[in-house]
Design goal:
Tumour Suppressor Smad4; 2 domains
Length: about 260
């Protein structure tokens, strides 16, 4: 979803700030669920000529209004007969235009940069981020963790085989040759298990795997580690609990 889609239905009142002569844009975003109701300012002091009407919103009016219609369309309305508002060089009372239309105010044709205004407004909306790549991180983590656990179980079996084969040899102590063979085989397997355990790097790999998760299983927006949440649970959440960025995932599409 683009910033313009978020702004659909929002109307701006634009004019000259009566105190400092900057461009003043009054925006009420509460209808979009954003706690923002008030003016934004653009340019430097005294940069807007007196031919641009003062913006007195919300108490009064301004030079013109711009409504975001969606589908990259805007509606520009000149708010006073004495004002001059131009859309793509044409004097306008009310006109629907493209989002990238050029809007000039007053007889001096002061340019109101709608792109800058839209970008500034978009900062008040939580960013929509795709988190599907986190499924690969989660799957890789669990695959590696299971592999380490399986190797540990195998090593435990090998080391404990000394006792198992010794017990079997005890039962066969009257049959000398099988008992010796059991002892030899058990001892060989057990020694191999001990050597493998001594040289095993499971602990180091577990630490590295945990570090991999802490570095990669994070919010793409704020970088916070999603500790304790499986991807299945995480993908069902509407937004990041830390920064409020809206989640998007093909695994749990939202309508």
């Amino acid at each position: 979803m683009s910033a313009h889609d978020n702004l659909k239905g929002i109307t701006l009142i634009i004019g000259r700030d009566p105190d400092k002569g900057k461009l003043k844009v009054y925006a009420d975003l509460t209808a979009a669920g954003i706690d923002k109701k008030g003016p934004l300012f653009f340019g430097t002091d005294g940069s807007v000529p007196p031919t641009v009407s003062r913006c007195l919103a919300p108490q009064g009016s301004g030079h013109c209004s711009i409504e975001y219609l969606g589908d990259n369309k805007i509606k520009v309305t000149n708010l006073k007969d004495a004002n001059a508002t131009y859309v793509n060089g044409t004097p306008t009372i009310t006109r629907v235009a493209d989002l990238n239309a050029r809007i000039d105010l007053g007889a001096d044709r002061y340019p109101a940069n709608l792109q800058s205004i839209t970008e500034k407004l978009s900062t008040f909306f939580p960013k929509v981020i795709n988190i599907d790549h986190l499924k690969d991180v989660w799957d890789e983590y669990n695959e590696q963790r299971d592999s380490i656990a399986k190797r540990q179980r195998t090593l435990n079996i090998l080391v404990s085989s000394i006792g198992i084969f010794s017990l079997g040899a005890g039962f066969l102590s009257r049959i000398w040759e099988p008992a010796i063979w059991l002892m030899v085989v058990g001892l060989a397997i057990g020694i191999a298990g001990v050597i493998m355990r001594v040289t095993d790097k499971s602990n180091q790999q577990t630490k590295e795997l945990q570090q991999y998760m802490e570095d990669n299983y994070v919010c793409p927006q704020c970088g916070q580690y999603f500790q304790g949440w499986s991807f299945n649970v995480l993908s069902k959440k509407p937004k990041c609990p830390y920064c409020g960025a809206t989640f998007e995932s093909k695994h749990h599409p939202r309508h």
